Fold:
Amino acid sequence: MGGGSGGHITPLFAVARELKRLDPSIKLIGVCETNAKFLHLFEEEPCIDEVRQVRAGKYRRYAGLSRLEKIMDVPTFARNVRDIGRVVKGYAQARKMLKDLKPDGILIKGGYVGVPIGLAAAHLNIPFITHDSDSIPGLANRLIAKWALLHATGMPTEFYSYPAGSMVYTGTPIVSDYQPVTAASIASYRNDLGLKDCKKVIAVVGGSQGASQLNEDMVAIAGRLMQQHRGLGIAHIVGPAHEIEIEHAYTKELLADERRNVIVKGFVSDMHRYSGAADVVVSRASATVIAELAVQGIATILVPGQLAGDHQGANAKHLAESNVAVRVAHADRERLFNAIDDLLRNEAKRKTLASNLSALAKPAAATELAELLLKNFRTEAKN
Structure:
């Protein structure tokens, strides 16, 4: 199970495909929060045999606000109180569901729906394993951590505060569509996307739900970048809620010849083609996206979002200090322009970043995690 964002969901499908390959008789049930934004992804994944929904509540901890501002934010406080009731209801739903299904085990990828599921599983003595992609575990996984059988990690275990013997470093699972890019695959992706005549391409990834500030910054600097780099193409994934707005903004800001080389999409299920077509990727610092780009081997600029817990900031800081990626602060538009401009001009730097990022790739992460689940849940079942 997983929810909240695409980064909590798409790795599950990579694991699901490996589980089916290792044991075709296994039955896999996908669980997400009621009325989830990405419910359709579960429903469209052929390796998920059944989809269930459970009520969940969210604890809102908006980054960038002082403690006093958070206390005085009455609407947010009221929504948090309301969502306590949703967690209670979700626990009752999860308990009934797990009693009916009697699963051998549960993989909890993250997202606030993991709290009612994890609590119900603990009380029913159903084993579960958590997985954290980011270097800072999400709040939901931390709340249920003490009942977990094991904690699989996307980053090396020294980044985490779980008990040492409870962790297994598997990496972050990604689907097999992501492969190391080659000159041939880049040309193929560009041809498929209608960017075959572009001399250079930037892919901008705001995450599954988009990133308003990053979207606005890219639109604002796109014209300058295209003037400096003739024949530049931009593939921009903006989030479903922002697609029309950003399409119009590019049309307003760019000349007609420039606008033809810009693709704007709200959400895509074949992200590997968009990132794989690029010389430079600009992305939020989601660990799932980083894992995907590491396998492809593409020079990357990370612009961490202002999220509670600052897990993206920690991811970006670590990678920038290791010369694996370039880090640009949220809303630093001029720095973003300079970083993109620099990488487009400097092929040697692009190759160095791409090589350093590729060294972190764990393309077998989905297989390792699937094998870990089967081994431990079968052992628990025998006991």
The chain has two domains: 6-173+363-382, 183-358.
